[in-house]
Amino acid sequence: MEKALRSVARTVHYGKILIVGDPVTHEPRLHYAKLPPSIEQHQVLLMDPTIVSGANAMMAIRICLDHGVSEDHIVFVSLLATPQGVHAIQTAFPLVRLVVALLDSRIGKDDLLVKSGYGVFGDRYFGTEC
Q: Does pTM top 0.85 for this prediction?
């Protein structure tokens, strides 16, 4: 998603947040964050290809808020999301705008992955298998 955005928005400042769900507890863990200086003065576009529980997205939003970004200046973009994840984000952060291409409610009970027939997004994108 970033490559496509960079091709049309060359003058935009970019940051990176890497949040990975723990494989056992499924709790989000922050691994890396580097945000542009003066981020609080800008609109922020957060991108993640999938939203399942919404926990990773909510952590990313919280990081932006902790850096002074106003909740109504955040737009979260996702290609595939579950209604549960969208509801969780909207409940916790009602002023954050969500843009989702497809809602799908089929989630694996053990691994909390979307089971839509699309496969795990990373596997589909990179041509690998779980």
A: no
